[in-house]
UniProtKB/TrEMBL annotation:
Superkingdom of origin: Bacteria
Designated name of the protein: Mevalonate kinase
Keywords (A to Z) from UniProt: Kinase, Transferase
Single Gene Ontology MF annotation: kinase activity
Keyword DNA damage in annotation: no
Organism: Polaribacter aquimarinus
Keyword Kinase found: yes
Length: 308
């Protein structure tokens, strides 16, 4: 048994904002992927994954929802036979490792599933997002459902608001100097504690104002610029966003990277922002000159995502 491949995702813009209903833009990232496989000889990672799938099965079996029905009998049988999720997607890195797993389970075991091939109306997309939100909550405590949706459809997705998501056309990559890249913090980040910090901060009126007046409006401007290929304006807005995040989301930025973050803003060699919930994993970088950024960040591992 070998299931279809599901890819990692990168939330280019919208981390935390989408919890509070501002815009977001997510793209598939094909450098990392996962698939369901089966083996009678489980050890190490595959054994751990199989045990995790059993816990996930119990969670799905306990769900009280009319949104989706799973073939739980088949799922349990396959887990007992040694099914596991074989994945190259790093966990705790903000690139959707649990999202790809959720997408693969839905794809194989949901009855009357919404398929990628049918006409994806807004209602169907929202339905899928809700189903995935419920499923992925097993891993994070609270999930928007966006990561699995992105992985399942393997399309860029624009989140206009909680109830309005649509596939997005993004400009095709150019062979220019500019780039979006990943910077490896070489630390694992956990989503739940980071989201809890954010939710506690949201109790503060000043922070709430900053989110709606500064953070959300700058994020929305970045998305508009990116979708319309306004590169010059994009970098101005990404620089503003980088400053806002450094000032207001310090706990989500690993301590060792506060100076690196500041340095990018000061030199204009690159601008950093959170990739997912932060706290570790990848940090997302934008630069008008990738060579210059590589030079400035030569002590770190960088991975190219998109070229301008």
């Amino acid at each position: 048994m070998k299931g279809p491949l599901f890819y990692a995702k990168i939330l280019l813009f919208g981390e935390y904002g989408i919890i509070k209903d501002s815009k977001g833009l997510a793209i598939p990232f094909n450098a990392y992927r996962g698939a369901l496989k089966s083996s009678s000889e489980l050890s190490g990672k595959s054994k751990f994954s199989n045990e995790n799938l059993l816990k996930f099965y119990k969670y799905l079996a306990s769900l009280k929802t009319d949104l989706v029905v799973f073939d739980l009998e088949q799922l349990k049988e396959d887990i007992d036979r040694g099914m596991y999720f074989d994945s190259s997607i790093p966990q705790g890195y903000g690139v959707g490792s649990s999202g790809a797993l959720v997408a693969s389970i839905y794809d194989k075991y949901a009855n009357d599933k919404i398929t990628v091939l049918e006409n994806l109306t807004r209602d169907k997309l929202l339905n899928l997002k809700q189903i995935f939100s419920i499923m992925e909550s097993f891993f994070h405590g609270k999930s928007s459902g966006l990561d699995p949706l992105n992985s399942y459809l393997s399309l860029p997705i624009l989140i206009n608001s909680k109830d309005n998501v649509e596939p997005a056309g993004i400009p095709s990559q150019k062979q220019g100097k500019g780039a979006v890249f990943l910077l490896d913090s070489e630390q694992i980040g956990e989503t739940e504690p980071m989201v809890n910090i954010f939710m506690n901060k949201m109790k503060n009126e000043g922070f709430r104002k900053m989110i709606s007046n500064e953070f959300a409006t700058t994020t929305d401007a970045c998305i508009e610029d990116f979708l319309h290929g306004n590169v010059k304006s994009l970098f101005g807005n990404v620089k503003s966003l980088s400053k806002i995040v450094l000032k207001n989301f310090k706990p989500m930025i690993p301590d060792a990277f506060h100076k690196v973050w500041e340095n990018g803003i000061k030199t204009n060699d690159y601008y950093l922002k959170l990739c997912g919930s932060g706290g570790g994993g990848y940090i997302l970088g934008f630069t008008e000159d990738f060579e210059k950024a590589q030079n400035s960040l030569k002590n770190y591992k960088l991975e190219l995502v998109y070229r301008f």
